[in-house]
Amino acid sequence: MREPRVQFSKILTIGSLSLFIWALLKGFTTNFSEILDTTVYVTSITVSGSIFGMCVKSYMSKAKAENIYKVQRTMYEDIMKVKLQYNEEMMKLNKRYNVTQDEIDVIDLLSPINDGVDSVLSDMKENINNHLYDTKTEDDVDNF
Q: How far lies 29's CA from each of 32, 33, 35, in Å?
């Protein structure tokens, strides 16, 4: 297993936050009775806040993409566990009652649970694909 390391996106977000906080503090602690032009302070607060906002938005998109991958992997692992348990139970039935594979297949086809499982799986896949599409599309930046 890999050792966790600090990601560049976290460093960038923390750095832009500290820049924004510094600009705010500098703007609020400056004595404006001596300085007539406040353009530098207003611009620095606006720009650093915008940079911080974009860094947070980018970091959240990246985290969302990573979480979607984790959900997909977990879903696949859970499905494989259920499938393995089902196969083991079918093998036990086969040995206990001397049921042929054809008879097991007929029972499977008549079982209403398959429709429910397929419906749940397709809903989960569609939901994951929608989230993945949202993550891959570029974010629009609003200008005011």
A: 9, 12, 12
